[in-house]
């Protein structure tokens, strides 16, 4: 791994087509900087992207990558990491990808605690399809498909993660570049599933959850006496519906990642050009 | 047909039917006899009716037949369910002291052997061994030395302690002795001779699992579903010994995407499922193909549509595998025709997937998957396994496949359509794979010219595969016969045995058994040369027959079975004969 990797090495030659001012620019910059800062380079990094505005990140970043089926980014990342424990795996997607069509996978990826990071670009809206309610939209948020609001409570992704046994839960804000990058870095360095929900405002379709709103309401846990290793502290923060927080909400100090639990350590891309040694034992079992 | 012996044990789910049958099958196999097994089972944990059937001969057996010689019946229903197969000389072993069997009627001329299974088992050490007592009784009827059962009992119970093995061996002897003492005056016509041959006994799911490991598959993700689960349970605990891993995913959407991820990581990866799970995996199928990811998806077919008959035979998913998914998706569909071919075609599926960077459906039908069959061990000669990973470039050659600005080209436009592949970690190889239409570097494009070039490139891979690979069918019978029978999947064994029966009636048949559904062999000449062509398959609409008609531009006759039960050799012979006679009446 070269030590002179710059974050721009993670940039592809495709110019992003996100709307000017979109939170995803800042989110992506933080991801690239965090990857470079943790000693990774594009050739040993695998980024999995979902579908939606956030899914375009696979095109704008430069690394090994897969831009897949809507909602299935986490299983893809899981497969990559199991086959290649030596590769840094980062999965990204939007709130629709992760908490709606892919919600089932989210819960189980959290449970598995595979050693990878998961960055959700949460703008509380479906942007690419031009403004419908997302699973994190407020219950009175009026959109073309919910003219009177969804009238259902938004998904609380941190609570979902905590309930599923998460070992790392964090929240960042795309506009707070330094803190965002630090938090992503911590997720990468975490021994297990590093989950970061990123407030990444949609400037075109969401006039409620705006930059101003987050700037005014966010409390940085780093400025409080919050203990990230204290489960009850984490629970209180996560269930507090009156405030928005950023920072690492919870981290299990004793996290044992999947590959250690299951002793999955080999680079599976390397195989012999015939049957593996000892394969005849398999035939003998059938005597 | 060889002098064969047909045996079954039947009762309720939860009665230990499966393990009892397996012990008998193993005893036969270990004493140098060929074995072919089949199962009647239901989708329930307890109750209902379930049976394990064994056909055995010193010669190769590869089908079930419509005949049952000895039946161990734990329930009255076991007898009712098998009335069609039982005959006047059949022997039924039952426990008349069991409340439900007390007043059981032995039909017609059949011989009923009332053996106090439970009581004798208790005397030997525990009621749980009553089925083993029945096995001992069956040995007496079949004139099969009880010592042959010993090693199978050893294999089954050996890891649970000496005492248990000995108790079981004693229980078996108690059953044998009871028949000798109480029914010594009866003469049974059976004598199961043993040979010095060594055989292995395995089913199609196990053969697929073993083939996967042999081929270098290191990653398997799946979600349990009948009748594909056995592939997963086989791999679990075994693939790890070769550096691999099995994940039980949360659903089939996840399973196929995990396998896709592992394949992008450079591993040989597989998933297996059955119809309902294949439906879910179809979501990702187009991505696998468009991103040019090598992946083997195993479909162990069961009766559909919807939940259908989950434990019953059908070959109903052919159209789904050929056409499933939106857009036009290139793919290979391979359907092994025997248990041993399940092994070899799995190896081939992995090579095809990687050489052509294409998804491969590997399909076995339920009958093939659950059938245990004997083979000589060298049938699975591991030294003959070849692994061809296709066009993989490393750091020494990667520069030949980069653009001037340095971007690697995973979808490079080549003459044969096959582009270079790199695994993560290869310096200079970073690239994105996507379900979007893309340029040579894998970057999204909607450029009309590039769209055409990439579509043509992907289709050209299939043309290349058609040219380079051997897609020949398997042939049996009389190559010059005027009657042609075509089949795919597991029907082969029944047809091959039916050939002998038909020949005895003076009917010569040429059989073409097709393991390659797509690409498939061109049968135009064969159909043209035949007077009568019949396509045999286990579905109602003749999905394979339709393909053949499409290929050869000629109508064919069909024999379709969709009652959930596989073809039996003797029954199929009768049907083929009837179809040919009808054909002759219709076209004199």
TrEMBL record, chain A:
Domain Pyruvate ferredoxin oxidoreductase beta subunit C-terminal: 202-265
Domain of life: Archaea
Lineage: Archaea, Methanobacteriati, Methanobacteriota, Stenosarchaea group, Halobacteria
PANTHER family assigned to the protein according to its UniProt record, in alphabetical order: 2-OXOGLUTARATE OXIDOREDUCTASE SUBUNIT KORB, 2-OXOGLUTARATE OXIDOREDUCTASE SUBUNIT KORB-RELATED
TM segment ranges: none
Name this polypeptide is given: 2-oxoglutarate ferredoxin oxidoreductase subunit beta
Pfam families, alphabetized: PFO_beta_C (PF12367), TPP_enzyme_C (PF02775)
GO biological process: cellular respiration; organic acid metabolic process; sulfur compound biosynthetic process
UniProt GO MF annotations: iron-sulfur cluster binding; metal ion binding; oxidoreductase activity, acting on the aldehyde or oxo group of donors, iron-sulfur protein as acceptor; thiamine pyrophosphate binding
The keyword Iron-sulfur is annotated on this UniProt entry: yes
Stretches the record annotates as Disordered: 130-154
UniProt keywords, alphabetically: Iron, Iron-sulfur, Magnesium, Metal-binding, Oxidoreductase, Thiamine pyrophosphate
Cofactor: thiamine diphosphate; Mg(2+); [4Fe-4S] cluster
UniProt keyword Iron-sulfur, yes or no: yes
InterPro entries (UniProt xref): 2-oxoacid:Fd_oxidoreductase (IPR051457), OFOB (IPR011896), PFO_beta_C (IPR032686), THDP-binding (IPR029061), TPP_enzyme_TPP-bd (IPR011766)
Species whose genome carries this gene: Halorubrum vacuolatum (Natronobacterium vacuolatum)
NCBIfam families cross-referenced by the UniProt entry: PorB_KorB
UniProtKB/TrEMBL annotation, chain B:
GO biological processes: organic acid metabolic process; response to oxidative stress; sulfur compound biosynthetic process
Segments crossing the lipid bilayer: none
EC class: oxidoreductase
InterPro entries: 2-oxoacid/accept_OxRdtase_asu, Pyruvate:ferred/Flavod_OxRd, Pyrv/ketoisovalerate_OxRed_cat, Pyrv_Fd/Flavodoxin_OxRdtase_N, Pyrv_flavodox_OxRed_cen, THDP-binding, Transketo_C/PFOR_II
GO terms, molecular function: 2-oxoglutarate synthase activity
Name this protein carries in UniProt: 2-oxoglutarate synthase subunit KorA
The enzyme's E.C. designation: 1.2.7.3
Ranges for domain Pyruvate/ketoisovalerate oxidoreductase catalytic: 13-176
